[in-house]
Structures are given as structure tokens and as C-alpha cells.
Amino acid sequence: MAQPTNQPTSQVLQPRARERRERILDAALAVFTRRGYREATMDEVAEAAATSKGGVYFHFPGKEALFLALLERSAALLLQRTQLALERAPDPAGKLDAALDVVLRLFASHRDLARLFLVEALAAGPAIQEALLAIRRRFAALIASELARAREDGLIGPLDPQLAATACFGAIYEVVTQWLLSGSPADLAEAAPELRRLLRRLVGLPDRSLDEDGTL
Length: 216
Known about the structure:
Blueprint: H1 15-35, H2 42-48, H3 53-59, H4 63-88, H5 92-109, H6 111-118, H7 126-152, H8 161-182, H9 192-203
Helix pairs in contact: 1-2, 1-4, 1-6, 2-3, 4-5, 4-7, 5-6, 5-7, 5-9, 6-8, 7-8, 8-9
């Protein structure tokens, strides 16, 4: 995955510098989602972050590096929450439900992150698209490892775990993209029950009773 180069990382920065870097990333998220990747400028990010343009460039050598860092920060949050949810779930169906709930909860409460992943990243250059693909693969790998374990334990039938995980991600991706671009469903949580059933059937898991109100 392409990474920003020649920039300070959060691991080696002093506390004040780390705080400033995070503030710049927060500002960049607001600017990118409001203006779009192509139209956004480093000047606008600096203004939104209440810092100088030089301050932005100290941490990020350019707009692409800034976007990549923002994508990686967001992906780390998604993957961390998904991993924790998978570890807590008791069985394959519960793990699949948990992974779905993490994605829907995160994007429903952070629409700007959904737009970053599903819209703005696609309008950016090859390095960002490569990074986005790597993030998708990392997420799919979490699901694939659980499916492989369930297959080995005889809890699901023969399948290609990686292909099935990619298909699961694709289904979630399309539902969230439709919600983001068209506003349907009005509440992303409304899609949860049917999407859970669809994902279980896709990997050969039995249906379980669902909350009728679709609460995540």
C-alpha cells in the first residue's frame, strides 16, 4: 500500500505536535468531504485547522500524502473495532453480524468517513486507489480468516473464504454507497436485518432471529 513519505509519524512526534497533526487530519476530513478531493486545497486545510500552510506541510508534503494519512487513520479505526467485535462474538453467525454492525454503526455516525472511503477516494489518483484497495483487502482478510475457521470446524460448507469475504464486503459497500448518494434507506440501520440475512445465506450460515426494528 502506498504510504506518505518524508513526513513525521505520530509515533515519533511530541505530544503538542501529535495534537496538531490530528487537528490537521480532522480539518482535512471536513474540507475533503465538503469540497471534494480535486477541489480541496492545502490552504483551505490550513485555515480549517487554524494553523499555517507551512504547519500543514511540516506534517504532510502534499495533498495526496494528507489524504493517504487520513485514509489510514480511518481504516485503523474500522479494523480495530472490527477485530474487537469478532473476538467477542461467540459463533460464525455472530461474528458476521458483528462485523456488519461495526461498519454500519461507524458510517451511520460518521457520514464524512463514508464519503471519504466511498466517493472521494475514487476521484483521487492511483496511489490513493491502491491504498483503498489494500484497506479493503485487510478488512476482507479479517472476515476470511473467520470463515476459514468455521469451514475447518464444519460449521459451514465448502467455500473459498477470501472470495466469500470479498463478496460480503461488496454487498455492504453497495448498500452504504446507495445510502450515501441517494439517501435510501433514510436510516442506515433499516438495512441491517435484510443485509444480515443476505450475508448469512451467502456464506451458508442458518438464519437467526433478528431484532424486528433493525436496531444495530
